[in-house]
Amino acid sequence: MRKFNFLSLSLLAGLYASHSQAQKTFTVKVNEPVVAIQPTMWGVFFEDINFGADGGIYAEMVKNRSFEFSKPLMGWATKRKQEGDLLVLHRKEQTNNPRYLHLTARNAAQGDLELTNEGFRGMGVKKGLRYDLSFQYRQPATGITLHIALQNSKGEVIGSTVVKPADGDNQWHKQAVSFQATDTAVKGKLNIWLEGTGTIDVDMISLFPGDTWKNRPGGMRGDMVQLLADMKPGFIRFPGGCIVEGFDLSNRYQWKKTIGPVEERQLMINRWNVEFPHRSASDYFQTFGLGFFEYFQLAEDIGAEPLPILNCGMACQFNTAELVPMEDLQPYVQDALDLIEFANGDVTTQWGKVRASMGHPKPFHLKMMGVGNENWGPQYIERLKVFTKAIKEKYSDFKIVNSSGTDPDKDRFAYLNKELRSMNADIIDEHYYRAPEWFLANASRYDSYDRNGSKVFAGEYAAHSKGIGSNAGINVNNWRAALAEAAFMTGLERNAAVVNMASYAPLFANTDAWQWAPDLIWVNSLGVYGTADYHVQKLFSLNKGTKVLPLTWDGKAIAGQDSIYASACIDEKTKEVIFKIANVSAKPQNPVLQLEGIKSVATVAESIVVKGDLNDVNSLETPDKIAPQYATVAVKNKKVATTLAPYSFTIIKVKMQ
């Protein structure tokens, strides 16, 4: 990422000082809608970074449950009487997850033969909650008893049960048991000790909380999904991000390896494990318990359009830049065609049948797909054309999202933007991780874009408060960054004829195990909170509207004059005119909102305000330091006299009559 010279907000605040002395009247013409706003306008972007899947939204509490990490016992502490009492062996019949533990108990009692799992930076345990434990086992005869306990950081038991596997036929079986926690712990752990004499093989030791999303066994963290559902996003993009590319092609994301029975999904190192030496995470792997089926299901649950991104035959160009030769590209193209069939195909088709076997006979109604992530250069265009031809020939109405590289400008972007538009690309994915000032300066970025050409997906963006990239300092999610994003987003809404989709990135981060900041939602083992940026994104999504309305000050769009940025839309379903206004200056401002082209409106409007000091941040301790405040404001003669607080984002909703 490139570095930028930072301008102060106060400097930008003075750019249009001449306007500040005159009465500000913002005029909206309600009877002259400009263009429809797509239902997909505001969405979310998920990538398995910052322990966003394993250790995050995927609710599995046991780290390295199948002993397939590069170090088989990573995450586990063990006790044994003799060295040979605990061995790591391989199942010949299970090629995807072959490792298991062979345990030998010799008249064992507590302290003789034990396994303790630390979880993902500690297990979050809630008092009174049910916990569901399962494991696979094989034993030649009965005689072993397993004592299972949740412990707090002091080693005190805060929930326990006892299991005596009943089958002694030397075949693999699955055992499940549930028990309740008697206390709460942020840094808990799972302890298992063996009693008796004999041998037993164990694998896939798994623990889930009882409050998963929709109470699905082996599901997702309910509190994290709820924050997504509360946003009502128009789409969810998955699974990334750079993990789509991989640091080389062997490390790329392959969707077919993420479906089917969980125990048959092959674990892989997460590319963020090794990406940043200063934020190393040697225990970061992908179990794919959260796979493509679960992503589609999540999108369906929260009412969002699914947007999968597939590898285009190119590894990360910042890492190895490995390429698939053109003559070997067909399997990658076939993966794309097969994914559409998996999502949409009838149950009689090959991949539709697989979807049905996983419990979803009805199609997921996939309408779009990304080919490549942040890929660039002529080698990308060459491969993209092959994908596009194959997909369009079979599914003519299917939309393809195309990469414009890593930057919003410079030669790399200019080349791709020109090539893609000459190809009549459906959607071009633009990314911008930049300083807050960049977002203010680019609120008019799309004013001059061709209204009839390729559409834009603002696929990854975030204002970085200290520098671009995680090695440039800790980029906190402060109000300065979120306010700049709000200002920029008014420009996206104003240009909905060009911009059809937008999503902040990344989505999730574990407070104890992150690699990249800033991020929209932060979690630990027990808690979750939305950042200031989250509240901005949520407010835009919940107040999306259906059509853009022309909003002007002195006949011009409001994009920085006197440090104000604004847009307006109409919601034909709720019959509301919705104003969105960012005041990025240190002074209060008092514009009058004038509604024209309508006979009458309600006499009271709803006001939603987010404000704070520029350095304010939310946290697990103070999750609502920056949060919306709701009030009402009078409407007289189709005018709303507003007061915009310093450094504030305001939404005014006026009911039409």
From TrEMBL:
EC number: 3.2.1.55
GO biological process, one term: L-arabinose metabolic process
InterPro entries per record: Alpha-L-AF_C, ASD1_cat, GH, Glyco_hydro_b, Glycosyl_Hydrolase_51
GO molecular function annotation: alpha-L-arabinofuranosidase activity
Positions of the Alpha-L-arabinofuranosidase C-terminal domain: 459-648
UniProt keyword list: Glycoprotein, Hydrolase, Signal
Pfam name, any one: ASD1_dom
Superkingdom of the organism of origin: Bacteria
Residues of the signal peptide: 1-22
Catalytic activity: Hydrolysis of terminal non-reducing alpha-L-arabinofuranoside residues in alpha-L-arabinosides
Family per record: Belongs to the glycosyl hydrolase 51 family.
Protein's name according to its UniProt entry: non-reducing end alpha-L-arabinofuranosidase
